[in-house]
Amino acid sequence: MSGNGTNATAGYDYSAYYDETINFSPCDDVDLKDFGHVFLPTLYSLVFVLGFIGNGLVVCVLVKYRNQTNLTDICLFNLALSDLLFVLTLPFYAHYSAVRQWVFGDFMCRFISGCHHSGFFSSIFFMIIMTLDRYLVIVHTHKVARYRTLQAGVTLSMFVWLLSLFVSLPALIFTKVTDGPEGLECNYAPNNNAWKLYDIFATNLLGLMIPLVVMVGCYSRIILTLVNMRSAKKKHCVVRLIICIVATFFLFWAPYNISIFLKFLQSHGKMPNGCKFHRDLKLTITVTETFAYTHCCLNPIVYAFVGQKFMKRAVHMLSNWLPGIHLRPCSDLSETLFRRSSVTSKSSVTSTVIM
Hints:
Pfam families: 7tm_1
CATH class: Mainly Alpha
Protein name: Chemokine (C-C motif) receptor 11.1
Membrane topology: Multi-pass membrane protein
GO molecular function: C-C chemokine binding; C-C chemokine receptor activity
GO biological process, one term: inflammatory response
Oligomer: single chain
CATH topology: Rhopdopsin 7-helix transmembrane proteins
């Protein structure tokens, strides 16, 4: 995951030309480049606008009500910041795709790539933290209540940001401006294959496999716990929301991760090397990468706006900003899965801590 789906600059792909195991001429990618020239700027711009508005609203609401902050709000705030950091890099890649060359210099090439990776990984990590937090609160209610403090939330957030920066360092170090057929390009160009493998496996393991395993494992236990609780109406809403969260994450990120893994296999001679397969795979990576990026637009919805308390805050704030428009909060889908930090007893978890 390097943002290099935007590097639709050359008319031909010579990446495999000097590989002695491959016996075909450079593939003509002109049509694919022309497709990316229109498709990527449009989709990146749309994701930027929607992601900026949604996550920006989450940040504004949580800052306005910072005196009522709990551990969940801290994680939600940092998740929104991560997605904002991610989407703020998209206008640069949209411009890159539109003009087919990098015009912002080597420093910005490295900096934007580093921010792009840091925003991606920190968003994933904060989703994992929120999942584990909900698991502990619901399944091990009384054991963790005293540890869910603001200080713990701040410390945990700092650790996640440092970890994200550390994981993203190769992108910051090895991404650089190089000369291309149509001008300057901003590419991830490590010194050896080990760092290329790192980029692929970090994206697949940290970006899909580990969070998916955590989500499936934790939410499965949560659902089993909910089955034995009262308040059937809210229980069903929560179960549906849990399924929605896991399914959305998988459907948005799995196609892209599978595509880049196939690209890895192709580069090692495990997949067909013909031009048609090469072009189809490259097109698939371009489309699935952009589709995966739209997940950051959904995070505010599945993690924030489904909560009744957050919706009331957001509606109240928007009503103050737009006095001529009368807004009403939606009905309670779930004040039960990602909201309060107060814990009473397992019999009341669905009404106090799940949302």
